[in-house]
Amino acid sequence: MKLGINIDHIATLREARKINEPSPLEAIFVLKNAGAAHITLHLREDRRHIHDNDLQAIIANSPLPINLECATSEEIIALACELKPQQVTLVPEKRQEVTTEGGLNLKSPKLQETIQKLQDSGIITSLFIDPNLPSIEQSLALGVRHIELHTGEWANLNLMASSNLKHTQHKITSLDFPYPILQDKICNTLKQIQECAILGEREGLEVCAGHGLNYQNVKPIAQIPQIRELNIGHSIIARAIFVGLFEAIREMQSIINESI
Ligand code: PXP
C-alpha cells in the first residue's frame, strides 16, 4: 500500500510567522528518503497554508509525483491545468471550515465540466467522496478512474471513543455518544468503507483513502486490501515535532506495512 503525505501543515507552521521556514519544498526531499510515494498539497481558496508559488516551485522541483487537492474554483483549476501536477483530487471547500469536512457533492453541475477540463489537460482526476455506495456509482458515472474515500467520520469516532478529546474544548458535540454507541458506529463506519472499497475496485476504480488517519486508527483501514493508497498529513506532521519528519514517516509506514 502506498503512502502519500500531505504537506499542508508544514506551510501552516511557516504561515504562523509569515517567513520562509519551514520550507514545504525542502520537506519533500526528506519525504522521498523516508519512502513516501507521492506528495499531496491543498491549495485552498483562502491560501491559508499552501500558496501559488509553493505549488509552482514544488511541481517544478519535486522528485515525487504531486497530487493537488482543490475545489472546483475556476481560478485554481486554470492554474492546475497550466502547471499540470500528475493528479488533482477534487474536494469540497467551505471558507470557514478548519479542514475538509465531507465528501464532494457529486450532483454539483460544475463537477462534470471541471473533470473534463482536467482530463483534457492530461491530469489524472480523483474525487474525494463520502464512503457510501451511491457515491461510488456517481463517481463512475462522472467518468473518473480514481476516488479517495473520506475517512473523517472514522477518525472522529475513534477520537471520541479512545482519546481524551471528549474531555477537552475540542469535543465533537455531534458525536458525543456513550462508549457502546460509539463502538457500534465505529464498526458500521469501517464496514461502509470496506464495502465501498470492494465495489470501487470491482468497478475498476483506483481506491485511495484519507483524512484524519493517525497512528492509532490507521491499521483497520490499511488492512482493507482494495485500498491502494493512503493520504495522511496532520498526524505525521504533528508526530514530526517530537521525533522528526523522517522518523514520523517511517513509523507510519511500518504500521501500514505490518497491517498488510
Ligand atoms: N485527503 C484529502 C482529500 C484531504 O483533504 C486531506 C486534508 O487536507 C487529507 C487527505 C489529509 O488529511 P489529514 O491531514 O487529516 O491526514
From TrEMBL:
Pathway: Cofactor biosynthesis; pyridoxine 5'-phosphate biosynthesis; pyridoxine 5'-phosphate from D-erythrose 4-phosphate: step 5/5. The record marks E148 as: Transition state stabilizer. It is an enzyme of class 2 (transferase). Keywords: Cytoplasm, Pyridoxine biosynthesis, Transferase. It is found in: Cytoplasm. 1-deoxy-D-xylulose 5-phosphate binds at D8, H9, R44, H49, T99. Its EC number is 2.6.99.2. The keyword Transferase applies. It catalyses: 3-amino-2-oxopropyl phosphate + 1-deoxy-D-xylulose 5-phosphate = pyridoxine 5'-phosphate + phosphate + 2 H2O + H(+). Belongs to the PNP synthase family. Homooctamer; tetramer of dimers. This is Pyridoxine 5'-phosphate synthase.
